[in-house]
Structures are given as structure tokens and as C-alpha cells.
Amino acid sequence: MNQKPLIGITMGDPAGIGPEIVVKALAKPELYEQVRPLVIGDGGALERALRVVFPSPVAPGSGGGPSLHSVSRPVEGYFRPGVIDFIDLDNVPAKLALGQISAAAGRAAFDYIKKAIDLAMSGEIDGVATAPINKQAIRAAGIDFIGHTEMFADLTKSQPVLTMFQVQNLRIFHLTRHLSLVEACRQIKRDYVLETLFACQDALQRLGFWRPRLAVAALNPHGGEGGLFGDEELKEIAPAVEAAKTNGLSVSGPIAADSVFYLANQGHYDAVLALYHDQGHIAAKMLDFERTVSVTTGLPFIRTSVDHGTAFDIAGRGVASSTSLEEAIRVAGHYAAMGKK
Q1: How many other C-beta atoms can be found within 10 angstroms of the C-beta atom of residue 155?
Q2: Radius of gyration over alpha carbons of the chain, in Å?
Q3: Residue 257, pLDDT score
Q4: Residue 290's closest CA among 322, 329, 333?
């Protein structure tokens, strides 16, 4: 029996590059050596993407591009190179305009996510990798979620849920994410940092790090220089770190943000807790923009995602890179396999 993890891949917003990067990624035979990929999307959108990515004379079924195989359940998949197995929700209008915000596209993208969650919760798939959605399209469809993470947390009734970035040997958690910098700074409080450190340890242990080594990034330049450049390190962050140590966590910090990410990538720490959105995002994306993967921790199953948007400006041109999605599928497979051990 094939024991490779079965990873559900949501197609993302059908008006964006999601369908294109899905078919481009699954044209790579090497992915099938690591996972059994199953797309959750729309057959018509996937056919259009194949025509864009593999234009004539390299057409679906001609030997140059993969063919599509519709299934009703994951166990029906072939899971072999040259074939894209997919569950067809048949929910994209035939004349959907590419590169435009659309309520129909937002609703379709949300439907793929709900289906993937249902399959993962029932144990029919081992993990989920998501192609990008558009927040404005989601809102246009009347869906009251700001993003993927919030959807997965709510629909699986999971708390706390954290976002972890992974690129090369660097893993980054975020204390705060989609907030203004001013509001993010207001939320850097001892109890919140401590609570998040416990959640980080739990997440890493679920991923196979039984005694994880954590580091906390400093907020201010040079870690505040003893209060000369701000006192958040003295009043909030350092006390949280000390409390975490007292409770048995292996954690260091606060460590100046201009060095802590480098040290973690060199293997000194298993993960870093960044304090605000750009502090962590810049560090990861400067290291390798295309291979930065978002991992949602705290769910009943592994979920990874590309770390880019729907790229409406290039949708339908076949030029979008599938590297981030390929990496997201691999990382989902890796952690799903670790969870089976």
C-alpha cells in the first residue's frame, strides 16, 4: 500500500494564478516521489489553466502536459506523474474574467477550503496545501473571514492557532500579524508573549521537535540597550522569557532582531518568535522569497500555504512561478509523514 502522505491542494481564487501554479507544480514528477497530491477545485478552471501553461502543440493528453482525472473520493486517485487527480466542485462560471475581483471567485475559493477541511477532519487526506485567495473577493462573497488562517481556525474549532514561516533551516512564529505597527506594539505584553511561547513549544512538539529551542526577537534596536531605546524588552519581553524558563521551556531572548534570524538559520535555535508581521516576513523572504512557506500550527492536521498572493496582474499568462506551491506541498508532506510516526 502506498504510504506517502495524501495532500489536498486547494486551487485558490480561480480568477488569479492559483489554477496555473497548481497544474504547473503537478507537472513535476519529483513531487509524486514525496506525496500523493489531490487537487480540490474546478475542472473547467483547471482545463483552462492547462491550455495556458501547456499551449498547443503541447496539450493535455498529448504527452507534454499532465491530464486531468476527476474523482469523487481521495481513494480513487491514481497519484502518478502525468495525471492530476482532482475533486471537481464545479463552481466556477464558464466566463469568469481573470485578473479581477469577483464574488463568484471568492465563494468558489472558500468552497475549496471547506471541502479540504472536511476531508482532513474525516482522515481522507493527511494534510492541506493552499493556493492563494483574494481577501477582497472573499469579502465580496459575503464571507466574514480576513484570511486562510482564520478560516481554518474557525472551521476546525482550533485555538490557539499560529502561523509559522519555514524557509531553509529557519522557522518563524509571529506574535502579531495583520495589525498596524502601532497596534502590534501595544499588544506586546508579558502574559501574551508567555502564552504564545507555550503555543510555539506545543506546535513544534507536534511537528517532531520534542525539546524545541526557542528564541524571542527584540522589538527595539539593539534590544533596547537597557532601556535607552525603549523599555518593552525590560518590562514585557524579558520577564515573559524568564517565566517561560521557570516553567521548563528552552527559550532565549530577547535577542536583537538584526541577528536572531541568522542565528536560527545557522541551527542555534529551532524557531524564532517574531513580534510583528514585517519583522518575521522580511527575514524569511530575504533568505529565499520563492521558497518561503506558511505553516498553520494548532490545527488537527498540517496545513501549509504559498507565501504570495493571487497576482491578478499576470493571471492567464502562464508565467507565474509554481516554486512556492511546490515547496508548500513538500513541507505539508514532510510534516504529515512525521505525524504518522
Answers
A1: 17
A2: 21
A3: 96
A4: 322
The reported pLDDT for the residue numbered 56 is 67
The predicted pLDDT at position 307 comes to 83
Could you write out the three-class secondary structure of 33-56? HCCEEEEEECHHHHHHHHHHHCCC
Residues of 95-119 as b/e, b for ≥16 C-beta within 10 angstroms? ebebbebbebbbbbbbbbbebbbeb
**Is 132:14 a contact under the CB 8 Å cutoff?**
no
Count, residues in the chain: 341
Helices then strands, each counted (H, E), the chain: 12, 12
Residue 276: other Cβ atoms inside 10 A: 21
Q: Name the amino acid, one letter, at 286.
A: M
Place of cell 538584526: 258
Using the structure block, give the residue that is written with the C-alpha cell 501553461.
Answer: 53
Sheet of 302-306, strands arranged across: 67-71, 83-88, 36-41, 6-10, 127-130, 302-306, 293-297, 162-167, 170-174, 271-274, 213-217, 250-255
* pLDDT 10s digits, 158-169: 988 888 999 999
User: What pLDDT does 274 receive?
Assistant: 97
- Structural domains of the chain ordered from first start: 6-158+296-340 (3.40.718.10), 169-284 (3.40.718.10)
**Residue in 251, 233, 232, 231 with CA at minimum distance from that of residue 243:** 251
Q: What is the CB-side half-sphere exposure of residue 187 using CA atoms within 13 A?
A: 18
Judge contact between 308 and 16, C-beta under 8 A: no
pLDDT, tens digit, 9 for 90 and up, residues 273-296: 999 999 999 999 999 988 999 999
What are the residue ranges in the chain where pLDDT is below 50?
Answer: 1, 58-63
